[in-house]
Amino acid sequence: MTVQRVGIVAKQGLVAASEHVSRLGPWLRERGIEAIYERDTATLAAAAARGVTAMTREALPREVDLVIVLGGDGTLLAMAARIAQSGRDIPILGVNFGSLGFLTEIRIDELTPSLECVLDGTAAFEERAMLVTEVFRASQQVDSRVVLNDVVFTKATLSRVIELSVAVSGEFVTRVKADGLIIASATGSTAYNLAAGGPIVHPMVDALLLTPIAPHTLTNRPIVIPGNAVVEVHAHANGAPEDIFVTYDGQSGYPLHEGDVVRVRKSERTLRLVKAPARGYFEVLREKLKWGER
Q1: How far apart are CA 116 and CA 169, in angstroms?
Q2: 222 Cβ contact partners less than 8 Å away, ≥ 6 residues apart
Q3: Which of 21, 33, 184, 273 lies 20 to 30 angstroms, CA to CA, from 135?
Q4: What is the CATH number of the domain that holds 16?
Q5: Is residue 228 domain-resident?
């Protein structure tokens, strides 16, 4: 791949990234590459005063060949959604600050070597499956989203359970009574799905996961389904008309109406992640989950 313009995005307010963000621009320009800062990131690095190019997070993916994300998995997820919205296929180099991330797996000391590998064509990439969600109300489509990790249905109040009818590729599965339901990609298996007791699925496995959150039927367990399946969820109000809230990658969401139908399937789009130069998926798992430690 040819890289001529690189977008730089840091977690909002991440003061610890200021020095590194400030160095990236000159480092790229020395190699004939234009650095384009996300607006808040430019302010964070005091780069705007030096006349560099800055633009919104929404506009950035349409103008660059690579996005460098400095922060955590949440920052990367937000940019992944914006890249999908842009309709472009550009990779993300995710740099983690603090503990190692499942998605932002490159450490700050690995940033320069990883970036050099991208520029000289020797970098390794992972293609991660994404999910597309369509919401229908009175048979009319009212929303469509592309996410990397998960689509989550939760209760909008503290006191009630929610009721959802779930079908897979046209076959009725069950009526879920629970605090919520997670529909996750394999990549999202290590996010909310893991916290809710769902299985870890290697990101290269072509699968979707259905994981109830605190189900009120103890036999209602997580299930792994084929990656080409279409999950259809029907919302049933249990009290107030907008008891059920749908959230996309933990970044945005809204209440559903009774009778709304939500369809989730694997997207034709994928997200390309720059791999850490000397660390595999299982090493990340061992470090994050403290496997083998006493």
Answers
A1: 44
A2: 193, 196, 197, 198, 199, 209, 210, 211, 212
A3: 273
A4: 3.40.50.10330
A5: yes
Tell me, yes or no, whether 215 lies in a domain.
yes
What residues are paired with 166 via a beta bridge? 174, 233
Q: Is 245 exposed, middle or buried (0-12, 13-18, 19+ CB in 10 A)?
A: middle
Question: What residues have CB less than 8 Å from 289, skipping those under 6 apart?
Answer: none
Look up the domain containing 137 and give its range.
130-268
Out of 73, 150, 243, 260, the active site residue is 73
DSSP state of 157: S
Q: Residue 239: what are its φ and ψ, rounded to 5°?
A: 120, -110
pTM (predicted TM-score): 0.92
How large a percentage of the chain has pLDDT more than 90?
Answer: 68
Domain presence at residue 294? no
The distance from CA 224 to its chain's CA centroid, rounded to whole angstroms, is: 19
pLDDT in tens, 16-40: 888 888 899 899 999 999 999 999 8
Is 65 noted as a catalytic residue in this protein?
Answer: no
Instruction: Give the number of C-alpha atoms closer than 13 A to the C-alpha of residue 45, restricted to the C-beta side.
Output: 29
